[in-house]
Design goal:
7-stranded parallel sheet; 14% strand; TIM Barrel; disordered N terminus; alpha/beta; 38% helix; 293 residues; two-stranded antiparallel ribbon
């Protein structure tokens, strides 16, 4: 499904070029919520999910994040149902390395044969000949990490994937993997209330590696009445989620937020965050508050 957007607020979020050759609008879209409870099974409203994803593209989103473990397999199938054949500017990033024995349960599986099979499954579900960005969802501590990366390099050599990314890693792990292959993206949890990956973000900013913060909208106590986020929201006449996303976009030029939702109204609200201008005083207040929280 190809669209001709007339109003693209996500396009105002700026552009980041993944791997030197994949330009995307920085404000992307995450599909983890395209499932049932516990990130398991089909969503309660399949039609709304499809409409939401199509609306995201109409609003200028060009970067879509997913994983084989979402459902499992559900989110990838819905992406293809909503958007295939894909517009030329759409970049889909998927992940492998976590398996799902049941709702709310996630287990690492970095066996090379599993990663190869997972990639083939993602290619089929997404209806792609090559995955632009294939990320290792977790480094499996039971398997030598060199073997896990070796499997991705094999897939890359065969033309199954274009670029390699990592998820939930430390700076030392990124450096170790980069001795074997370029790493174009890192996907760690990061938001106003949880900045434990600050050192990873700093490293990615310095090295111009895309940093994809998952769970980007969490704000914790900052969103409570009288909190820094609440004050910024009142000053800007915006919603807390919009300010949280705008903070991420200004925080570093390599940040690619991927707020996820299964509701069209939510994606419309989220993309409006790209139009917000946070001045230095608001940034400083949010920065200091998040440090002290």
């Amino acid at each position: 499904m190809k669209t001709t957007p007339t109003n693209e607020p996500a396009g105002k979020s700026g552009t980041f070029t993944i791997g030197g050759n994949l330009p995307v609008h920085r404000l992307g879209f995450g599909t983890m919520r395209f499932t049932g409870k516990g990130i398991w099974g089909e969503p309660s409203d399949r039609r709304e999910c499809i409409a939401t994803l199509r609306r995201a593209v109409e609003l200028g989103v060009t970067f879509i994040d997913t994983a084989d473990s979402y459902g499992p397999d559900v989110a990838e199938r819905l992406i293809a149902e909503a958007l295939y054949p894909y517009a030329k500017n759409i970049v889909i990033a998927t992940k492998a390395g976590l398996v799902r024995p049941g709702p709310g349960v996630w287990q690492e599986n970095g066996r090379p044969d599993h990663l190869r099979e997972a990639c083939e499954g993602s290619l089929r579900r997404l209806k792609l000949e090559r995955i632009d960005l294939f990320q290792l969802h977790r480094i499996d501590p039971k398997i030598p990490w060199e073997d896990q990366i070796g499997a991705l390099l094999e897939l890359q050599k065969k033309g199954k994937i274009r670029h390699i990314g990592l998820s939930e890693v430390t700076v030392d792990q990124i450096k170790a993997v980069r001795r074997l292959t370029p790493v174009v993206s890192v996907q760690n949890q990061y938001n106003l209330a949880d900045r434990r990956s600050e050192d990873v973000l700093s490293y990615c900013t310095k090295e111009k590696i895309g940093f994809i913060p998952w769970f980007p909208l969490a704000a914790g106590d900052l969103a409570k009445p009288g909190g820094a986020l609440a004050r910024a929201t009142a000053k800007l006449g915006a919603q807390p989620t919009q300010v949280a996303l705008a903070w991420l976009l200004r925080k570093s030029p390599v940040i690619l937020p991927i707020p996820g939702t299964s509701k069209m109204t939510h994606v419309e609200n989220n993309t409006e965050a790209a139009l917000l201008k946070l001045d230095d005083s608001i940034m400083e207040e949010l920065e200091q508050a998040s440090v002290s929280t």
